[in-house]
Amino acid sequence: MARIFASTIHFAEFRTAYESKKADSSSLISIEGRETESLDGRWSFSPDPYESCLRKRWYEEKKYAPDGRELPVDYDFEHWDEIDVPSCWNLQRPELFYFESMGVYFRTFDYRKHSDDERAFIAFEGASYRAYVFLNGVYLGCHDGASTPFMFEITDELKEHNRLVVAVEAERKDTRVPMSNNDWFNYGGIYRDVYIFRTGKRFIKNWFMRLLPNTDFSKIALDVTLSDDSDSEIHVSIPELGIEKDVKAEKGKASTVIEAHPELWSPDNPKLYDVSLSIEGDTISDRVGFREIRTEGRDILLNGKPVFLKGVSVHEDSTRLGKTTDETTIRETIRVAKDELHAQMLRLAHYPHSRLFARIADEEGIILWEEVPVYWSIAFSDKETYKDAENQLSELILRDRNRVSVCIWSVGNENPDTDERFAFMSSLAQKARELDETRCISAACLVNESEERIDDRLTDALDIIGVNEYYGWYSPDFDMLRRVLENSHPDKPVIISEVGADARAGNHGPKDMLWTEEFQEEFYKKQVKTIEKCSYIKGMTPWILYDFRASRRFNRYQEGYNRKGLIDDDRKTKKKAFRILADFYEGR
Ligand code: GCB
Asked: 322 and 91 in contact (C-beta within 8 Å)?
């Protein structure tokens, strides 16, 4: 008894055993076109700040001693209050608003086999930051990273009546990605969908279909990975292009290039094609678009033509739902950006947004910049931190690489220029290229403030240089922007990935008074005038479309929000600067 007592309560290393079993990008299965069975709904929930669920193995539900005596356990799954899944726990109960440690979720669900050789998987689209998953008392594994999906096979653990326990922990730590300090709100919990799906014994694990760059828009490449390393025939069908082709998979992998002349996808013509892939016992389908994005000298070429990317940044955040989002919210964000701001691009800052976003962007026709939260001072020399960052990047790319709207992968934002950072982020850029040779790689880079020019070793590893600048806001010297742009001679296109000033909606005053709409309006007027004159700037994603929660912003205008939005946190009230940017974009 003493031994068990020591190992479950006082054993300081109690997490180590759990950490040895982690879900990562290698376990992701493409789920587009697959039938899923939702586990969303009301789940039992309790905060567990001392992580007793792990220390005392609550998930085993050992409530009785071998002699039948009832044990005084510290949990009560069935009797806990309920919480929505998906949701950010912070917005479910007032006392959880700043809660950042562990919460334990519980639910039951029934399962009936459809066939004898079926396999089943459980998938989580997002749980912040680490989730430990237990099914019927068995530990499936944990996952790090707040914003990417993860999956476990549960074929052997499933019963007719199932008991699912998920312990989620949302601590900010210096070794995490993002680290402890950032400029948004640390939402916790299972805040995206949870579902199960079934496959046959063998199935299509993932696939990547894209137009090959530099082929006169005439070659579609396809890579497929099967669930095992068998040889088999894969049938590829794109009926509208007259494509019906059998491709041989050897040792579970197939690659082919198909001649085709698809109508090209663009924001003006978001053309998608029905695609299906099948092997014996498994068929998946999706809607895929074809376009080319590349750079040449200082130009960004979309389908061979130079473009100026008129964009705006957006956080996944709403006052009501936090980081949990839905189709209506995403469609409305895209409508406002496209129809009212005349933009054709969104920067999804600073972490992977919901899978739904890129799906809808494909249909609606808006270009996306997607990003991993390698933000500010990451623990660049920590190997585990690198592993975590690389895994989040891989999970994002595997999730979204069939989404035509995604044109840029960004590997980080405003990181101090050290040797460790250079190695870390160059490797991330390299990883992104290995997984996807068809998109541009970018990051928000640094300006050398004393020499007044863009100067960052990382630019060598990128296709597009992102620059964040707040001249006229954080630094009053607005003219520095002109000097920096004049002194810089980049050999690649530059996107102003951030520029902005705070204004509280409805706060009016003279144009030199901070926090007023008039200040922000004047700031935008001056910015666009200067940016417009610079020939190598090939796009901008000002900061930001909507005000968003930020837990380091507490003056009387901010009240817990970053107020650089062109629209208030009510997502309706436009500030005066909105018109300035909309007019600028409409005229370009
Ligand atoms: C930045 C950051 C962004 C902040 C913004 C600000 O440079 O990249 O995350 O929210 O500035 O408002 O200060």
From this structure: yes
Residue 388 to residue 169: CA distance in whole angstroms: 16
- Neighbouring CB atoms inside 10 A of 223's CB total 14
Residue 183 CA to ligand 1 centre (angstroms): 6
3-state secondary structure of 34: coil
Cross-strand pairs, 83: 43
Which pLDDT does position 2 carry in this prediction? 38
Whose Cα sits closest to atom 10 in ligand 1? 183
- Give the pLDDT band (50/70/90) at residue 9: low
Give the residue whose CA is nearest to atom 13 of ligand 1: 183
| pLDDT band at 10; cut points 50, 70, 90 | low
- Hey, what amino acid is at 281? G
Q: Is 48 in the pocket of ligand 1 (CB under 6 A)?
A: no
Cα 482 vs. chain centroid, distance in angstroms? 33
**AA identity, residue 25:** S
CA–CA separation, 148 and 451 (whole Å): 39
8 has pLDDT over 70:
no
Say yes or no: CB of residue 498 within 6 Å of ligand 1: yes
Give the alpha-carbon dihedral of 177, 179, 181, 187, to 10 degrees: 50
* Residues making up the chain, counted from first to last: 588
Instruction: Give the DSSP H/E element, type plus range, for residue 521.
Output: helix 517-532
Instruction: Tell me the HSE value of 343 on the side-chain side, using a 13 A CA sphere.
Output: 29
Alpha carbon of residue 89 to chain centroid = 19
pLDDT, tens digit, 9 for 90 and up, residues 361-375: 999 999 999 999 999
* Per-residue pLDDT tens digits for 181-212: 999 999 999 999 999 999 999 999 999 999 99
- Give percent of the chain with pLDDT exceeding 90: 97
Asked if 499 and 485 count as a contact pair (C-beta separation under 8 A), the reply is: no
